[in-house]
Amino acid sequence: MSDGSDKEEDPPHLARYREYKRRQEAKRQQKSKPTTSPSYSPTTPPPEQCSSLPDRLINHRLTPLLLKLVIWIFLLLFFVHHEFGSVFFLASIPFIVWQSMEEYKRGPRELSAYSVFNQNLERLDGTFTSEQWEKELRYGPASVMKRE
Questions:
Q1: Spatial separation of the C-alpha atoms in residues 77 and 93, rounded to whole Å
Q2: What is the pTM (predicted TM-score) of this model?
Q3: How far apart (Å, rounded) are the C-alpha atoms in residues 74 and 37?
Q4: Of 5, 56, 97, 134, which residue is least crowded by CB atoms under 10 Å?
């Protein structure tokens, strides 16, 4: 059952391996080809250098935090110089706590760990309540088990 060629067909795993090697070699050759780049003036950087550190920091999520920290340190140094450093530090603690609580917003159906903040005072599953404790004391632990 020959189609006229003497070449045998490779097993599937060997064919995949040869295809993989061929792609790797093509990538290697493409990287080694010299690219003809346009000439740049001394004032205009090439495109690969446009993504500098300041450009990347602008889009980074920690940048606002770092900026706030630097401002806070400068204000602290200013108040220390004017002998109000401890007052500034103690006054900034409640502000920092308030800011950190503002970061996370719950979704519309996401429950709070504190049932008083949920609609209809809905509790999380597994919450240990005083009613449960009282039932366990009076009637034993089996009294609070959920029956299906």
A1: 16
A2: 0.38
A3: 45
A4: 5
- The one-letter code for the residue type at 140 is G
What tokens does 114 get? Answer: 């504190």
Token duo for residue 8 = 């045998």
C-alpha of 129 from chain center: 35
User: What is the model's pLDDT at position 148?
Assistant: 53
Contacts with 88 (C-beta within 8 Å, 6 or more apart), sequence order: 75, 76, 79, 80
- What would the 3-class secondary structure string for the chain be? CCCCCCCCCCCHHHHHHHHHHHHHHHHHHHHHCCCCCCCCCCCCCCHHHCCCHHHHHHCCCCHHHHHHHHHHHHHHHHHHHCCCHHHHHHHHHHHHHHHHHHCCCCCCCCCCCCHHHCHHHCCCCCCCCHHHHHHHHHHCHHHHCCCC
